[in-house]
Amino acid sequence: MTKDRTLGEHMSRRGISRRAFGKYCAYLASTMALSPKMAPAMAQGLAAARRQAVIWLSFQECTGCTESFTRSYSPTLEDLIFDFISLDYHHTLQAASGEAAELAREQSMEENKGKYIVVVDGSVPTKDGGVYSMIAGHTNVDILASTIENAFAVVAVGTCAAFGGLPYAKPNPTGAVAISELVGNKPLINIPGCPPVPEAMTGTIAHILAFGSLPELDDKHRPLAFFGESIHDRCYRRSFYERGLFAKSFDDEGARKGWCLYEVGCKGPIAYNTCATTKWNGGTSFPIQSGHTCFACGSPNFWDQGGFYKSLPSRTSSIGTVAGATAAAGVALGAGAALIAANRKKQYSKET
Amino acid sequence: MDLLSFARGPALQFAIGVFCFGVTWRLAILLFTPQARDLTPARKGALPSPIAGGREVFRRMWPEIHPTGSNMFTTINGYVFHLGLAVIVFGFAPHIQLIKSIFGTAWPSLPNFVIHIAGGVTIASLIAALVKRLTSPVLRLISTLDDYISWAVTIAPLITGYMLVGRLIQPYNTALAVHILSFVVLLIWLPFGKLMHAFIVFISRARTGAYLNHRGAQL
């Protein structure tokens, strides 16, 4: 498919009817919590969209985000890569390697100046000059800076890119930072998650294609359509929380009855993500539905929130030593003050 | 470090340190400062001091309305917000989880609607207590800054908690952090103001009971 051909033209060449395309856009608009009235506008925008150049940079990451992306239910990977976007650079998916791969990136940047989207997964190490992750002899910091210079927008996918993720967790040996700390004023969309829900990634890109603008974002640069509500608020086990019915362990009667997992460490109340509604694997399930707790993997510092299986209100720092030491100090000081007062009283009695 | 991590970690740790220090410091001064001995003989029929003291602790727990009804409001309202606070602190699942993480013990929680009702009633009761304090010339005269600060730090966790549960502050993380921080302020203030009565109320009642019994007062 040439870059000049619109998506609408390409669809009709492949025999996809306007009706099928309209239905698909209605689904997409619904997934993104857009008004039903926006579906025709989205269809019109997508039909007129030209192939979007995308450069995907992988830094300190585990490739889980790409794994998730390739399991996107709709649009499928095939649709996304061949119909929606021109994925010009991606370590895992591209055929080219070595200098040829780097050349493809540079060529795409030159040809699509000011129009291409940079997708980043993984955090960027900054300690010791950024030597802990290098590609083609360049540090991640340098590659990111040069690649985003003429980009239309930056999309940080996965919690590592959005908030630092695992590499950022204490003690952060590589000095990892989130992409937001390195992009300056460049338009940024964070799609966190470990990994992110595929529909959140593809839906966001589809929004950019259809409307030519960034979707509405929250204060953490996350698309509100996918990150506007907490898992807790949309959880089907919420009624058990309200009734005070909790599983006390993963194999007790409460767990078997499907009661709320709050007491075994569910972080649903602080997790803003779309898992509970969009779900995974084509809407099959999500962690809580499978009997496990939510880790709030789309939240900043989720690795350092005091333990995956500790309930949310639990303290996160040691209290016993502090309480013991301060109590001992209080008793000593109080008893000392009482003793001094007693001595003064005695002295006063003697003098008078 | 985000606000929630700060609230759950260092802030709570610091507040518990101040709380433990303050409470033990004040109790130590109270218990270790030598008191002047009462050299007078006990009145005829006086009970042994520990029994008289213990009896006074329980006797004062029972509401006693003055025949004129002048203390009706303060008595009933006092019970309402104290019981409401107890229901919220010891009956709400997240609070039980916090207690469990500190003391290692837990118990079944109450349904949320009970907590919501208790929260609303307690807030209303505390507001009524403030209105009474401000409108009663005598109460206003004897009130100090301590009274108003103690009132404020008591109602603050209730209001922030209510806003948290009702999703009136978004996002939840910020609301939870604000709620925990309001509790942190309460913990820090408690030992140094009138809220310390939570620890010395029984000591002072027992002492008063023993003293009055020794002097032959009818209780």
Question: How is this structure best described in words?
Answer:
The complex is a heterodimer of chains A (352) and B (219). Chain A has 16 helices and nine strands. With 352 residues, chain A is an alpha/beta fold. In chain A, the strands form three sheets. Chain A has a five-stranded parallel sheet with strand order 2-1-3-7-9, with helices on both faces. In chain A, strand 5 and strand 6 form a beta hairpin. In chain A, helix 2 packs across helix 3. The relative contact order of chain A is 0.10. The mean pLDDT of chain A is 87. Chain B has nine helices and no strands. In chain B, helix 1 (3-32) runs parallel beside helix 8. The interface between A and B is large, with 50 and 45 residues.
Largest sheet of chain A: 5 strands, parallel
Instruction: List the helices and strands of chain B in order.
Output: HHHHHHHHH
Low-confidence stretches of chain B: none
Shape of chain B: globular
Average predicted confidence as pLDDT of chain A: 87
Structure keywords:
heterodimer; A: 352 residues; alpha/beta; Rossmann fold; Cytochrome-c3 Hydrogenase, Chain A, domain 2; 3 domains; two-stranded antiparallel sheet; 16 helices; 9 strands; B: 219 residues; mainly alpha; Fumarate Reductase Cytochrome B subunit; 73% helix
Topology:
The complex is a heterodimer of chains A (352) and B (219).
Chain A: H1 7-13, H2 18-31, H3 38-48, E1 52-58, H4 64-69, H5 77-84, E2 85-89, H6 98-111, E3 117-121, E4 124-125, E5 134-135, E6 138-139, H7 140-148, E7 153-157, H8 158-163, H9 165-168, E8 176-177, E9 188-191, H10 198-211, H11 224-227, H12 231-234, H13 238-242, H14 253-256, H15 275-278, H16 320-351
Parallel strand pairs in A: 1-2, 1-3, 3-7, 7-9
Antiparallel strand pairs in A: 4-8, 5-6
Chain B: H1 3-32, H2 49-59, H3 72-91, H4 93-103, H5 112-135, H6 137-142, H7 145-165, H8 172-189, H9 197-214
Helix pairs in contact in B: 1-8, 2-9, 3-5, 5-7, 7-8
